[in-house]
Amino acid sequence: MNWAGRFRAPLADFTSVPRPLDGVPPFVWHGSVRTPEIAEQAPRYGDGFFVNNMFAPMEHYARSVALYRRRFTHHGDGAPEDGAVGAGSGIWVHANSQEAVREYRP
Q1: Which of 2, 25, 64, 85 is 20–30 Å from 52 (CA)?
Q2: Measured in whole angstroms, how far is the alpha carbon of residue 55 from the centre of its chain?
Q3: Start and end of every Luciferase-like domain (predicted)?
Q4: Rounded distance, CA 79 to CA 82, Å?
């Protein structure tokens, strides 16, 4: 595939992955830590919303999910509970980075 756009260098002989299977495109997750625009963008395309809430207050996380669900319904993709919402966070802490890497990635 060849492609040229406005905001990045052109692509020549490019193959995107994952490819559609039997004509069905893969499910797409839009991820965000703090950006509410992603909670708006994902339902515009009928896609899932993954929010990482590592350090923000739970209220921020809840507002982002509520916005996604409202906009999912607004765009005609179904009831708020039909939208795909994923959440998670993770942090690995140790006395120093060398010990953390040694223990986390043996």
Answers
A1: 25
A2: 17
A3: 2-105
A4: 5
Tell me the pTM: 0.66
**d(Cα 70, Cα 81) in Å, to the nearest integer?**
10
What type of residue is 69? R
Of 80, 89, 27, the C-alpha closest to 52 is: 89
Q: What residues contact 81, with CB distance under 8 A and at least 6 apart?
A: 69
**Letter for the amino acid at 19?**
R
Q: Which residue in 69, 28, 35 sits closest to 52, CA to CA?
A: 35
Domain ranges of the chain: 29-104
Structure tokens of 28? 């797409």
Q: Are 40 and 64 in contact (CB under 8 A)?
A: no
